């Protein structure tokens, strides 16, 4: 059966855990996923900036999305989702500290409810499938300011 012009292509998303919730990001904004490692704290950085790490010669700012989205639950914080510098305009390499990474999957436009999140900053919608809900977030949160973090700011 051929696709009609009115059918939109599905979007590949990465599903990950933050606390008790499942969230997803468009795979097109992600460069790589790495194991969480040692972070260097940055004095006087915004509350959502966990620190920086050296990722293959690049100083990568690590952000806690739980702070950005006001998620209070704790979790294992095992993985870092690193964003593609060309897709995210934050002035450097940025990654999100997530509890765990689940899978990459396709999301059809008809499976996304945008009505409940229309006024929520950084939320693209709620994905409904398999009897569960996944919150589709965007890395373009307005207060997602990593500041002017440079390697020289890091505490030894």
From TrEMBL:
| Alphabetized Gene3D superfamilies for the sequence | CheA-289, Domain 4, SH3 Domains
Domain of life of the native organism: Archaea
Give residue ranges for domain CheW-like. Answer: 10-148
Task: Please name one Pfam family that this protein belongs to.
Answer: CheW
Q: Which InterPro entries match?
A: CheW, CheW-like_dom_sf, CheW-lke_dom
SMART domains of this UniProt entry? CheW
Its recorded name reads: Chemotaxis protein CheW
Per the UniProt record, the source organism is Halorubrum yunnanense
